[in-house]
Amino acid sequence: MAVSPSPTPSAAKAQKTWQVHRADLPLSCPLPEHAVWNEHPRVYLPIVEEGGRSVCPYCGNEYVLVD
Ligand SMILES: [Zn+2]
């Protein structure tokens, strides 16, 4: 299998980047629609305090605040 360098490390993994809105706060992972495939203990991500971007320590999903 070929392993090629990736300029975007997140793209090399299965994790995705999700856009979240302030209306969705407080942000928790997994999101309700993710719960089936993304099971891990629910964790709240302080995305505002982290400057509008958080990465879940359990599954590696990235959340970006877009408004
Ligand atoms: Zn997660």
Describe the overall structure.
It holds the Pfam family zf-CHCC. Residues 39-63 form the Zinc finger CHCC-type domain. This protein has 67 residues and is mainly beta. The protein has one domain. Helices cover 0% and strands 25% of the residues. It is built from no helices and five strands. The chain has strands spanning 17-20, 27-29, 43-45, 53-55, 62-65. The strands form two sheets. Strands 1-5-4 form a three-stranded mixed β-sheet, with no helix packed on it. The protein has a two-stranded antiparallel sheet with strand order 2-3. A hairpin with a 6-residue loop joins strand 4 (53-55) and strand 5 (62-65). The chain starts with 16 loop residues before the first strand and ends with a strand. The mean pLDDT is 82. The structure holds zinc ion. Zinc ion (ZN) binds next to loops.
Task: Name the features.
about 70 residues; binds zinc ion; globular; mainly beta; about 0% helix; two-stranded antiparallel ribbon
* Number of H/I helices: 0
What does the largest sheet look like? 3 strands, mixed
Structural class comes to: mainly beta
Please give the number of β-strands: 5
Number of domains: 1
Small ligands present: zinc ion
Strand content: 25-35%
> Helicity level, as a percent range?
under 10%
In N-to-C order, the SSE pattern is: EEEEE
Strands in their spatial order, largest beta sheet:
1-5-4
* Oligomer description: single chain
Domain Zinc finger CHCC-type: 39-63
Pfam families: zf-CHCC (PF10276)
InterPro entries: Znf_CHCC
